[in-house]
Amino acid sequence: MSRMIGLILFWLAALPVVAQPLPMRLPQGVTPMSYHLGLTIDPDQPSHHGEISIAVNLQAASRTIRLNATDIKVSSAVLEMAGQRYRATAKVADNNLLDLIFAKPVPAGQGELKMAFSGQIDNKGSQGLFRQKEGGDWYAFTQFEATSARRAFPVFDEPGWKVPWTLALTIPAKLMAVANTAVVKEVALANGMKRVEFLTTPPLPSYLVAFGVGPFDILDAGKVGNTPLRFITPRGRASEARYAASMTPSIVTRLETYFGMAYPYGKLDVMALPITLNFGAMENPGLVTFAARILLAKPTAETVNFKRRFVEVQAHELAHQWFGDYVTMAWWDDLWLNESFASWMGDKITAQVAPEWRFETGTQNARARAMHTDRLLSARRIHQPVSDVESLESAFDSITYSKGQAVLAMFETWLGADRFQAGVRRYMASHAWGNATGDDFVAAIADGDARLASAFKSFTEQAGIPRLSVTLACQGEPTLTLSQSRFLPKGSVAAPASLWQIPMTVRSPAGKMQVLLTEASASLALPDATCPAWVEANVNGAGYYRPVYSAGELSKLMVKANLSVSELLAHLDDAQALTESGDLPLADALSLALQYAQHPRREVVDAALDILNKVEPLLGANQGAAYADLWQRAFGARARALGLLDRATDSDDDRLTRARWVERLLDIGRDSALRAQAKELAQAWLRQPKSLDAASRGLVLRSAAIDGDKGFFDALVRAVVLSPDRAERADIYSALARFGAPDLALAAQQLWLSPQHDIREIMQSGRDRHSNEAARESQFRFVKDNFAAISKRLPKESMARFPQFFAGFCSAKKAAEVEQFFTPRLAADEGGASYLKQSLERIRLCAVYRDAQHASLSGFLSSH
Ligand SMILES: [Zn+2]
């Protein structure tokens, strides 16, 4: 750490009003080469201060150096160069940019840029440098992706600047500090403080720098290969990392095997954050951070859902140690190089670590999730230019994560896993410790095959889903005609013409064929000697396209072909989507759902029930009872057999099915037997809180709340205030959000504004449970009436996402109301405009969908 000389004190003025937004990118003329950063942090205090020394290279003489800082007060700035000291004045350019202005131009060359500064430690959000109180103690943490390092110190805050960092933290002597690298030494200071110095890091972009300060507990998990592995938890809770510690080594080992190289960093610490907003975990090299609810569980709370979630997220974050950390995207437009890969690799590794969970079908979930967004005209491309903070904030979406995952899986299937893996290893080797672009990756995978590179880019460089019409003709030799266009739900207009180069595998009774469809339309001679009984145009569901079979062909295929589970999942999701585009009557999709709800595989039942689920917004005023009957027919017997309580004899599939669907049957399916059981169990729990285990508690309480009375509501409010356990509080808050009686629904919303409750906890546990129009309506009214008070209690980054809560509305009128209310209120919140635009498109499409399928739905409900 460098000592500061020549202090010039001044205050930063309030933000100037700028007519034209300044460019997001920093000028390229000044390059950071390394950082020495010293910060003084006492988590009990709301502010921090520090000194930073940045080795810089100036390509040309200049009077100004621009870097990033947000709400940082710079008290001195000096550039030391060739024995000279040049003092600068710091001036805020906008909320992201800071200009250091020198009295006269400083020459080109290398120097040390030294600043002293101070800033605020946020106690509301979980971005930048923030602090949280847990069990009576304050802790300080960081979350810098994407552009929040600048809230902690002045920095060249772009991913392309990947350099070594040497960090020292001055903290109260009784606390502990952790960071990306190991501690090299601790020095006792006066006033009960100490300085903790860390090893210099390998090259890191600023968004991956991380540290934590507090009275931590540590679970030492020994070594994985040569890497020391530890879990960092709030005081007294190390034992809750037991499951995480037991599973992490095999995840690391399998990743090392896939990449053919050791874990790239000197140590692996995994740290729990008490509460996070808008993210679950973060891949900081050597110090992965996790929302505590995903990482920690008491022995009795290690439910199958907890275990699956932890392994899936840990595999994702550890895959990032290679994809993202070791090789980093050059700029945020290629964020998919991080997130698509980590999602694809995370599911692959989870499937290996715990084969009994059958995560190989995770690609189908990703495909379905992605396509639900990608059908919109407002959908982003996988590779989307990022020129402002708005477009960056909206880049962390299901296109970047899930579409990217599904597209990678499609090309992996088409090329073969070995060839794909060789490409991944080539990519890692040629960009070791550096930065790379999407083009670099595609080149490494294609390995000189221009057709393949161009096919890949036809999916990353344009938005949308190919709609593939599949026609079998048997007049002469059996021929399949394939024609592509863009898949669009009814009500979408004026989409640009698109053409993809689609890698497909087609199967008929005579065998499989690989085809690369590069034209709008092509014919394919099938190997069958006579007219085949069926043709599968998307083998194993691996294709990122929606096949549309000519009349009768789909049902022949579903009946006669021996379809894999992945194929069934793709067909069921396609069937639902084709009701939106008008290619399939809703009644046909609902018949399929009823049929496959009885399937022996849990994943298929999930997909079938998802079709029923998506019908809810389309219902007319008098169709609730018929819809309840439909749920009963599809799932009633199974739900009652599962019941509400976890049983020792249950399989993991039983537990997952119960957690996901029994509440739905009880609510939408109006199941009186289960409702009565829920009430009885909830009353017993109020008398004796240990009477429900963690696997059953949330489900029982929510179920009892659906038609619960004021007495039960008040009892839950008393219980949530007294509970010291965040997991239990989350279950209770989720129940409070489920009361159906209008006065109690309103009372639940008023908890958001009560000083006795943490709105962040309520938002995390209950906000997405609007299962019907009345609940959505009541929630919207409350938000409209109290928006200013809500935004005072939540960090800005959470406000931008509010329109998403109301994307389940289904009328043009509601779309207009949502638009009118949020447009002026979110104009200044990063990402707000994008979330609003997509939510409005969803609402308007739903209105068209409801009208288009009304007759089919009514006919189906009255005849079943
Ligand atoms: Zn990620």
Give a structural overview.
- The chain is α+β, with helices and mostly antiparallel strands.
- It has a 10-stranded mixed sheet with strand order 3-6-5-4-7-2-1-10-13-12, with no helix packed on it.
- The longest helix has 32 residues, at 832-863.
- It is globular, with a radius of gyration of 28 Å.
- The N and C termini lie far apart (75 Å).
- Mean pLDDT is 94; it is low at 1-18.
- The protein binds zinc ion (ZN).
Question: What is the topological layout?
Answer:
Blueprint: E1 30-40, E2 47-58, E3 62-68, E4 72-81, E5 84-94, E6 97-106, E7 109-120, E8 128-134, E9 137-143, E10 165-172, E11 176-179, E12 183-188, E13 193-198, E14 211-214, E15 217-224, E16 227-233, H1 242-259, E17 268-273, E18 281-282, E19 287-291, H2 292-295, H3 304-320, E20 328-329, H4 336-353, H5 362-374, H6 389-393, H7 398-415, H8 417-430, E21 435-436, H9 438-446, H10 450-460, E22 466-473, E23 479-486, E24 502-508, E25 511-517, E26 521-525, E27 546-549, H11 553-560, H12 565-580, H13 586-596, H14 602-613, H15 624-642, H16 652-667, H17 672-687, H18 694-705, H19 710-722, H20 726-736, H21 742-750, H22 759-766, H23 773-793, H24 796-799, H25 812-826, H26 832-863
Parallel strand pairs: 1-10, 16-17, 17-19, 20-21, 22-27
Antiparallel strand pairs: 1-2, 2-7, 3-6, 4-5, 4-7, 5-6, 8-9, 9-14, 10-13, 11-14, 12-13, 15-16, 18-19, 22-23, 23-26, 24-25
Bound molecules: zinc ion (ZN).
